Amino acid sequence: MASIRRQRPRTPLAGKAVLITGAARGIGAELARRAAARGARVALVGLEPEQLATVADELGPEHLWVEADVTDAAALEAAVQRTVDTFGGLDVVVANAGIAPLTTVMTSSAHALARTIEVNLIGAMLTAHAALPEIAKRKGHVQLISSAAAFTVLPGMSAYCAAKAGVERFGDALRLEVAHRGITVASAHPTWIDTDMVRDTEEALPTFEATRKQLPGPLGAFTSVEACADALVENLETRGRRVFVPGSVGVVSALRQLVTGVVAEKVAMAVSAKRVPQLERDIAALNGREFGKNSVGDRSKGAA
């Protein structure tokens, strides 16, 4: 495919080296397109080589892709080193890789619960760990993709919520550790983004979709992957500490004690008493499948 034309070569990202995990599809791939269009050189990291190659070919010959498992520290270090060898350094890292299980705790295998934490939280930590020595050389920026799930809860998302809350707290502590080195750290909090992962979940679990549609305001609404990538790439340029997608999710974050408080919990429990049995019947119909059809969460090693 033809290379993407650089539309704004004088932006803050022009000439910067950007590494993005989970870059084969969804938010990661769209963010890569936005960064490349602003003049960045992008390293796409993930576990779907054919998909990664397709996106890299679309971006053009000045970009690269690396197959790597975000839960494998050595593989991530090798991906960072290849990026540095190719681009001469590293300015920005985006820890985006993630999976979401199609289970409740009662219906889940221990593997699916642990795998969700491993990919979403440990993967973000290992990505930052591998990249920081090079990021420090250029006083660069770290963007950690958390979620609105960091400060909200929904039945069927216990492991995912726990992981994303952990990513937010990890980012807050990391920011304090590296600020004196000139490194900035952001946590991004998208809500429902129109990606393969979200579509897979709603296709497999009709009850989950019905529950999502009953959530108030931005917590129940879909946002396009393009709009999400626009917000994320703006953060890469401004190096802010928080990104909310859509922006109104920031209000929910500020009111998180109310959203998860006793009164809200009692209302949620009343709804869950009906919805959870329906959800678990949907899960049983999957005959043991615990991740979306486009997810690599079921692989014995690795995830996007």
From TrEMBL:
It comes from the Bacteria. InterPro entries: KR_dom (IPR057326), NAD(P)-bd_dom_sf (IPR036291), Sc_DH/Rdtase_CS (IPR020904), SDR_fam (IPR002347). Residues 16-195 form the Ketoreductase domain. Keywords: Oxidoreductase. The keyword DNA repair does not apply. It holds the Pfam family adh_short. GO terms for molecular function: oxidoreductase activity. GO terms for cellular component: membrane. Transmembrane segments: none annotated. Belongs to the short-chain dehydrogenases/reductases (SDR) family. This is Short-subunit dehydrogenase. It comes from Blastococcus colisei. The lineage of its organism: Bacteria, Bacillati, Actinomycetota, Actinomycetes, Geodermatophilales.
